[in-house]
Design a protein that fits this description.
homodimer; 3-stranded antiparallel sheet; 3 strands; about 70% helix; DNA-binding
DNA sequence: TCTAAATTTCAGAAAGTTCTGAAATCACGG
DNA sequence: CCGTGATTTCAGAACTTTCTGAAATTTAGA
């Protein structure tokens, strides 16, 4: 590996965290490298920077493309494929959330739905099904909320984040106003 | 493995998903089994239900305890340790979020902070640092929001979820009211 | 304190994954 | 439609993780 110290530390950290994030070391390193690079890199640039085999880089880029985390760019007068990460970190976050949901949540949701359709054959199975229903309900609420919120523009998203838990104060205020209006109409 | 079909499907699914969630097959299966079980189980119950070795169950339970995902219970007149999962699925979700943050996010946040303190040695490093700053800013916003929201009681949490993206309408309404009040005071 | 059941530890076997170099395939310019 | 360079595929080597059975340790009651 042959990189400026600051970048090397960042790349190595992403490599180490890779396994916790469900990707392998090389994939993590490739992503990190592309993320901080000021210009698109081709596969050989990555081979040289990280000191791994050409084929490993090829497989890593393939996986990152499957995750929609890198973009293929073409440089004029250069046949080779070049890669970057999207500039907008919010967009990256959205992509990451979307892909993780697809891989880590959706399959479970669909298994739960299937199992909840079956008739329980015993008290034990009836209890199990009740627990599955609780889990299904929770996940469904969360994903519905997520589907809703993911469509917000970045600006509204940040406004929401900045509000934090104070959002519930707003909720209380709304309830009060609604109460007043009702009172006036009905009274 | 010797389980009613409905429960077996659930347990097998959790085993398969385990690797995507950063836990191993046995750990996933143990958790699933405890989650749907109507009463606390001891290690031998789990060995029998899942058909894995006693020591493997011991290690799995150990890991689940490290994740705070199972509770140790004692049954009167029985020396053996028994295990359950918490009843409240919201509590489970909170625990899961907390643990994942601790393992998957916090280390990166602290590495980013460190690297942002260093003086860049070149234009390349300066650019890299700017990218790291963007990432750091995003993660910090998100974790601050999370720290804020995780303290909400379940009821308020569900209210917030139910509102979904409509929460931003509320935000607009608030801005309008604030504007009105300001206008009155100043005008 | 002693005993026996319960639990944990640990070294090595089994299983799974990541990585490489060599060969195959692809695709562009002539 | 050929030659060259870019890219992908793939079998097996290297490495990592998971799992087991045996031995060691812990624990609760006699």
């Amino acid at each position: 590996m042959n990189l400026p110290p600051l970048i090397q530390s960042f790349v190595l950290h992403f490599g180490e965290m890779g396994s916790r994030w469900g990707i392998n070391r090389t994939v993590g390193q490739i992503y990190a490298l592309l993320y901080v690079s000021p210009r698109p890199l081709n596969a050989d640039d990555i081979v040289e920077a990280l000191g791994v085999s050409r084929s490993n880089v090829s497989m890593g880029l393939r996986e990152l493309q499957a995750w929609n985390l890198v973009l293929l760019r073409h440089i004029p007068d250069d046949r080779r494929d070049h890669f970057t990460t999207p500039d907008d970190v919010w967009q990256i976050l959205r992509t990451l959330a979307e892909e993780r949901k697809k891989r880590e949540v959706d399959p479970t949701l669909s298994v739960l739905r299937e199992l909840l359709m079956l008739a329980p054959g015993s008290a034990e199975e009836r209890h199990a099904q009740a627990r599955m229903a609780e889990m299904h309900g929770l996940i469904e609420r969360l994903t519905t909320w997520y589907d809703d919120v993911k469509r917000l523009e970045t600006e509204r998203m940040t406004a929401l984040l900045a509000l934090g838990a104070r959002v519930t104060k707003l909720l209380d205020a709304k309830d009060k106003v609604v109460g007043l209006v009702r009172g006036r109409k009905e009274g």
